[in-house]
Amino acid sequence: MKAARHCVLFALLVVCPQVVACGDSAGDPNADAGTPPGGLTPEQAARVVARVGDETITLGDYASALDRMDPFDRLRYQTIEKRREFLKEMVDVELLALEAKRRGLDKRPEAQMATRQILRDALLDEAHKSLPTPTEIPVGEVKEYYEAHIQEYREPERRRVSAIVVNDEAKAKELIEAFQKDPTPLNWGKLFFDNSTTASAEQKNRVPLDLAGELGMVGPPDDPKGANAKVPEELRAAAYKIEKVGTVLGEVVTSGGSFYVVRLAGRTQAHERTFAEAEAQIRTVLLKKRIQELEAALEADLRKKYKVEIDEGALKEVSLGAASPEPPQLPAPTADETATPTSKPSAPPPASASAVPAPTAKPSATAKP
Predict the structure, then answer these.
(1) What's the pLDDT tens digit per position in 206-255?
(2) Which of 47, 147, 224, 332 is the most buried (most CB within 10 A)?
(3) What is the pTM assigned to this prediction?
(4) What does the radius of gyration of the chain's CA atoms come to, in whole angstroms?
(5) 161 and 56 housed in the same domain
(6) How far apart are CA 89 and CA 207, in angstroms?
(7) How many Cβ atoms sit within 10 Å of the Cβ of residue 318?
(8) Shared domain check, 264 and 284
């Protein structure tokens, strides 16, 4: 718990550059910090609103923290009282951060890892600013993608399959005849719950009769995307032989040693998504592709800029440890041990700090360049 708190705390230090350790490393002190946030002028952004020890919190720091918030969260800070409350939170962060540095917690591996992850995300966010928004991608490029992937936007007719499963072929034939004499949802549900090996009392109480024995949707047998793990291929093919929704195939279907009465429970018509229907999704796909290409190029460039050496053999030396064995069973107590003690037993020793598992760092969505 404490280690996790230190890790989060040091992550907050990166938000407050005046107390972050990496701010002491070599770099360009004159680097452009960008346009001041919150509509402030450079002079307003430099105004000190709080001092914590030798550190300061400027109005620019304050506005930046607000700017990083979710827009809905930011609405809570419209009043002066709430703004004072937020400034107090920033002061508290500074106090804890300064004390954490004084204690050397910023040197801990988990704190340094948190810093690297934040800096990585900051670099990627900065790189992403060069990309267009989805709406800025040229319409010609979007149409070109649509035409090149038109098959992905053609949906064939899909069918919903239901089935009664029995272990005897003759019984299956009887059930087909019984349903054809009374092809109603009520009769189908009765036949299913009275005969199917897949029926259960629980289903009978909660599943509508018309949906009894439903296995799900399937596409045509030649559609690679139309398979359904719950529907054997023999049933999938049989479903496309039935002409009318609500009726059954007039022959028994055999699969895996069982015999099926197959019913067409529903159908959706074939559909081709128009360019207008697919445009928004395509723009998202194209932007995602650009992000991947940009990050791959950035990583390749950094590998040229910084030497990378990897010792593959060393990885084999890492032992993750086996699963903890079952604790040994205590022997049954003897008559002496079950007797009432004459003195109060000593309290068990406190758990060792090493027994507390270290927190697991949350991975970021993007790979480290």
Answers:
(1) 878 888 989 999 999 988 788 889 999 999 999 999 999 999 999 999 99
(2) 47
(3) 0.55
(4) 33
(5) no
(6) 53
(7) 6
(8) no
